[in-house]
Amino acid sequence: MTARARAAAVVGVAWAVAASQAIALQDGAGVAVAYMADGSSVPLRSWSLSYEYLAWPKGGSQVLSSPARRDGRELWFGRRSFPAAGTTLELEFVDTQRQREVDGEVRTVRIPRVSEVSLTTPDGKTTRLEPDPPDRRFLQPEGDKKLMVQARSLDLRGETITGTRRDLCVVTFTVLVECGGSPENQVVKVEFHQ
Fold it and tell me: Which of 25, 22, 3, 4 is nearest to 14 (CA)?
């Protein structure tokens, strides 16, 4: 990318964020800006963090369960909870290899997997964490203890400045779900503006 193209991209992102913040102030919500592996960004207003999970009776099969979601504005990793507003989430990746059918042939493909998350608060403090699945008490606070609970993914949901609803897969907690198969769909950083 040339210096001129980079400058134009920065100006475009700044304009989109400013426009999204102005709209978000009207509806009382902040703006979240997702940065993708290809260098593009997606500003979202009226955003939420959506955790997809499965719940099924002990002794039963998860195959028969339907995915459920729990939405909020907190980042949950393991037993820890962090308010997202004002925080920057950065993701580090490792490539894993999987067998896939591509053009009628089984091939080995590289799939990016989040290996570490960094949360930076407005005061500059950074916390580094493993991308552990959220504890069941976050996903089903009133949940039946006789249920098995498995977190599947963390998604960022919201509206673009043009009003289009977007769901961006940020982190997966199981091999059954994959995020960001291509650079334009791979979230590498999210800024949650207040």
Answer: 22
The per-residue pLDDT for range 163-177, each reduced to its tens digit, is 999 999 999 999 888
**Residue 116: strand pairing partners:** 92
Is the CB of residue 88 less than 8 Å from the CB of residue 190?
Answer: yes
pLDDT digits (tens, 9 = 90+) for 31-82: 999 999 999 999 999 999 999 999 999 888 888 888 999 999 999 999 999 9
Those residues with Cβ within 8 angstroms of residue 177's Cβ, 6 or more apart along the chain or in another chain: 52, 152, 153, 169
The owner of tokens 């009382």 is 28
**Residue 96 belongs to what domain range?**
3-192
Burial class (CB in 10 A: 0-12, 13-18, 19+), 1: exposed
Give the count of domains, the chain: 1
Whole-prediction pTM = 0.81
Local structure of residue 173 (DSSP, 8 states)? S
